[in-house]
Amino acid sequence: MKLCHVLRNAAAFRTAFDFGEREVAHWFPGHMAKGIKQMRATIKNESLDVRPHLLVLNKMDLADLSTKERTVKELERSGMRNILFTDSLKQRDDNIKKLVPMVTELINNKPRFNRDENTSYCLMVIGVPNVGKSSLINSLRRTYLKKGRASRVGGEPGITKAVLTRIQVCDRPIMHLLDTPGVLPPKIESVETGMKLALCGTILDHLVGEDVIADYLLYSLNRLQKFSYVEKYGLGDPSDDIQHVLKRIAVKLGKTQRVKAITGVGNITIKIPNYTAAAYDFIRAFRRGELGQVMLN
C-alpha cells in the first residue's frame, strides 16, 4: 500500500461525522443513577474533595505512553497530585504494589484521618464504566493476599450493578475496598462525547448501535490517518464506506448469517455477511489495541 495512493484516497474521506438526530439521554442506564445514590449514602453525602483520594489510570497497556508526561502535567494543573498508572490484568504489575503504600501515606498525612487506634482502612473505588475497577480490586487481592478474584469482571460496562460489600485486598495494613458500578454524568455534554465514550466501551454497545459505533471508529481512524485496519482485514486500500469495510471483515472472518429469501419459485435460505458480528469484531479490535494507539481528541 503506497503512501501516495493512501493519501490520495484520504482526500475523499469525510471531514465531519453525521450524528443525525441522536440524543444521549437514553445512554444513562438506571443502575448508574442507583449506584450514585448508594455511593452518596455510603460517604454520608460528603463531597469527595474533603477526603484523600488517589487517581488510578488503568489499562495503561492500551494507552499511548508518549503522552504520559503531558497527561500528568495537565492533571497536576487541575489540582490532582496523586496519580498512578496501572495494568491490572498483568499477573505482576509493579505499579499495583505501589497502591497500598501510596494510600497509607495519603491517609497518614491527613491529620483528620491520622488516628493511631484506627489500623484498618475502607476505600471506595469510583470510575466510569469498563475501566477495570473490579480487575484492580482482584489484582490487589492477588498481589497482597495471594487469593483469587472476589469481584466479577467482564469486557463490557455494567457488570457491577451496585455497591458491594467490603472486599479485603490487604492484611498489612488491613484494607478493604468497595466495588461500585461505573457511573457517568447524567448529562453527557454532547453526542460526540457520548460516541467517544461508547467507542471506548463505557456505554453498552446496543444502546448506541454497533453499526454506528463502527462507523464512527472508521471515520476516526481515517481522520487520524491510522490505516492499520487495512492490513489487519486484508482490505487492500483504506475506505470511508463502513458497509464495504464490514462486508470485507465478515467475509475474511467467515461471519455469516442465514436468511430466508422469497423468490418466484418459492422460499430459499441463503447466507449473507453478518454485519453486526463484523462491527463487533472491528470495535473489539480497537479496544484491545490491535488497531494501534489512537487518541480520540
Helix and strand arrangement:
Blueprint: H1 3-10, H2 30-42, E1 55-57, H3 68-77, E2 83-85, H4 94-108, E3 120-124, H5 133-145, E4 167-171, E5 174-178, H6 191-199, H7 205-208, H8 210-223, H9 228-232, H10 242-253, E6 256-263, E7 266-273, H11 275-287
Parallel strand pairs: 1-2, 3-5
Antiparallel strand pairs: 4-5, 6-7
Shape: elongated
Output the number of helix runs.
11
pLDDT average, as an integer? 81
Largest sheet: 3 strands, mixed
> How much strand?
5-15%
Stretches where pLDDT falls below 50 for ≥5 residues?
none
Which radius of gyration do the C-alpha atoms yield?
A: 23 Å
Helix content: 25-40%
Structural class: alpha/beta
List SSEs in N-to-C order: HHEHEHEHEEHHHHHEEH
The N- and C-terminal alpha carbons lie at a distance of: 27 Å
Q: What is the oligomeric state here? A: single chain
How do the strands line up in the largest sheet?
Answer: 3-5-4
Family: Belongs to the TRAFAC class YlqF/YawG GTPase family. MTG1 subfamily.
Function: Plays a role in the regulation of the mitochondrial ribosome assembly and of translational activity. Displays mitochondrial GTPase activity.
Protein name: Mitochondrial GTPase 1
InterPro entries: GTP-bd (IPR006073), GTP-bd_ortho_bundle_sf (IPR023179), GTPase_MTG1 (IPR016478), P-loop_NTPase (IPR027417)
